[in-house]
Design a protein that fits this description.
The protein is α+β, with helices and mostly antiparallel strands. It has ten helices and 15 strands. Helices cover about 30% and strands about 25% of the residues. The strands form three sheets. An eight-stranded antiparallel β-sheet has the order 9-8-5-6-7-10-14-12, with helices on both faces. A four-stranded antiparallel β-sheet has the order 1-4-2-3, sandwiched between helices. The chain has a three-stranded antiparallel β-sheet with strand order 13-11-15. A hairpin with a 2-residue loop joins strand 5 and strand 6.
């Protein structure tokens, strides 16, 4: 037992307290994002197999990864760092921009700055968080946000699945929905060709040759630009929709890569129907009544439900991070646009049905 598994000194202390010799293990690894770098450090320190430290850092530090990807000739936002929130300012040609933690996740403490008012909101929120810098300041990227999820083995992308977000994730600040719809490789062959080229080049630049990945991009006027890449399985219900649409078990593939076992991916397997997931939200407050899992499963197109809150629980401020929700579901549809509309409809219905006390 350790207080923080993401801190190397906590992990080493825990091992020594329990008289565990790390050299008795073959591999040090983690699929949990904040533990990827500590696992790489411990693997190298004890001479065990694991992700190289430079790759682990590149999969976490957004400034490092953007510099590497840019050097490989892949389109990516211009960026810089500031030490403190008080250093944030709108310079000539600098607006709009986005400020975020260098190694953050779930869009926490991520803000779009377009004018003096939004700048002050961002500075105030960051200062009140108590979190220390430095902070990444990057060019605001126009276009729609997509995520690529897949498997890379020995430097070759063995599987790539594309999904389109219902809204760009940063829109949670304005009440936006978090969710996405899978994109079919047959009907969107050109997009998949572009995606494979960008993904292959990005992973090579980051040195990520074996494992799984969750890569986010922007699509604008038919062109793709790199946003971020993590060496883990995507959040939300990416695992479930990937398995339903493409028949790929990302956790199994991650374990196979860690153990050096062959991939179990079958070429060409794909359900022609689109799948999507959406996080259901409600107004902040204590829940007095809400639809249960059976109510959600009865809604047209719903194939899986994950509850998060129950009557008596408190709905958090879901604009604070993209993983906060009252519940989430996987849905299946006839076509991608229709499914996206159904998901928005379910989210609106759910929000209306939840009753909260202030």
């Amino acid at each position: 037992m350790v207080s923080d598994p993401a801190r190397v000194d906590d992990v080493v202390s825990g091992l020594l307290r329990e008289s565990v010799d790390a050299r008795e293990f073959d591999i040090v690894c983690s699929e949990y994002e904040t533990c990827i770098v500590p696992a790489a450090v411990l693997a190298e320190a004890f001479g065990l197999a694991g992700i190289p430290i430079t790759t682990a850092v590149a999969l976490r530090d957004k400034m490092v990864q953007k510099n590497l990807v840019r050097s490989a000739g892949i389109p990516v936002a211009e960026c810089r760092t500031v030490v403190s929130a008080t250093d944030l300012a709108i310079a000539d040609g600098d607006s709009p921009f986005v400020v975020k933690p260098l190694a953050g996740s779930c869009s926490q403490l991520t803000y779009s700055v377009r004018d003096g008012e939004s700048l002050e909101r961002a500075k105030s929120a960051i200062a009140s968080s108590g979190q220390h810098g430095p902070w990444l300041v990057e060019e605001f990227m126009a276009g729609d946000e997509l995520h690529f999820d897949g498997v890379v083995r020995h430097g070759e992308v063995r599987f790539l699945g594309i999904s389109r977000y219902l809204q760009n994730v940063i829109d949670i600040r304005n009440g936006g929905l978090v969710g996405s719809v899978t994109v079919d490789p047959t009907t969107s062959a050109s997009l998949y060709e572009q995606a494979l080229e960008l993904t292959t080049g990005s992973l090579e630049a980051l040195g990520h040759t074996d494992g799984v990945f969750h890569l986010e991009v922007f699509e604008h006027e038919g062109r793709l630009a790199f946003s971020e890449c993590a060496g883990r399985i995507g959040g939300g219900m990416v695992y479930e929709t990937t398995q339903a649409k493409f028949g790929v078990d990302l956790y199994d593939e991650w374990a196979r890569a860690v153990l050096g076992l062959p991939s179990a991916i079958s070429a060409g397997r794909s359900d022609t129907s689109p799948y999507g997931w959406v996080q259901l939200i409600a107004h902040p407050g204590r829940v007095t009544s809400m639809p249960d899992s059976d109510d959600l499963r009865a809604y047209r197109g719903v194939v899986a439900v994950q509850g998060n809150l129950r009557v008596g629980d408190t709905v958090p401020d879901v604009s604070a991070a993209s993983h906060l929700r009252a519940a989430r579901v996987v849905m299946r549809g006839e076509d991608e646009n229709g499914l996206a509309d159904d998901m928005r409809g379910l989210a609106a219905w759910f929000s209306d049905q939840v009753k909260v006390a202030s």
